[in-house]
Specification:
The chain contains 5 helices and no strands. By secondary structure, it is mainly α. The protein has a domain of 83 residues. Helix 1 packs across helix 2, helix 2 runs antiparallel to helix 3 and helix 3 packs across helix 5.
Length: 151
């Protein structure tokens, strides 16, 4: 239910801003401005998406942790959804996610929050073997081979 309420508030806020801008500059300029901002967002989305995919490939190739690149990819996906949602507020939020400096701030907070919620404990692994001082005797049944010639 809270997601529905949040979406409803976002739609109402978008409509209020569009109406306010429309009253200030006119309906035609408002529509042209919405189209221009969305086109700029799509162009920036393509560029940043390609850069992030390249950085992700390089991280894998160099055996680095691709976590930051994966977070960037997720944030760019959120920005793509925001660009497709008509309105000025969503377009501004999308553009903020598409600019690398502001996306880095969001990514840093996102990764810190994920690390705080994570319950995975990482340990160093050392190759070795277990050596017992006392020999271990296993009581197992002995299987005798069949005798030649039958019984």
């Amino acid at each position: 239910m809270p997601v529905f309420v949040l979406l409803l508030v976002a739609v109402v806020a978008e409509l209020a801003v569009i109406i306010t801008v429309g009253q200030a500059v006119g309906a035609l300029w408002t529509i042209l401005l919405l189209i221009a901002v969305s086109m700029a967002g799509v162009a920036l989305l393509r560029r940043q998406g390609t850069r992030t995919l390249t950085a992700f490939s390089e991280a894998l190739r160099n055996r680095r942790d691709p976590g930051p690149e994966m977070a960037d990819g997720m944030l760019i996906g959120v920005a793509a959804a925001l660009v497709l949602f008509p309105g000025f507020i969503s377009d501004v939020a999308a553009l903020l996610l598409l600019f690398p400096p502001t996306r880095a701030v969001v990514r840093k907070r996102l990764l810190a929050r994920a690390a705080a919620r994570s319950r995975v404990v990482r340990h160093d692994v050392v190759d070795g073997e277990i050596v017992h001082d006392d020999p271990v005797i296993i009581d197992a049944p002995t299987i005798e081979p069949p005798r030649p010639g039958g019984n």
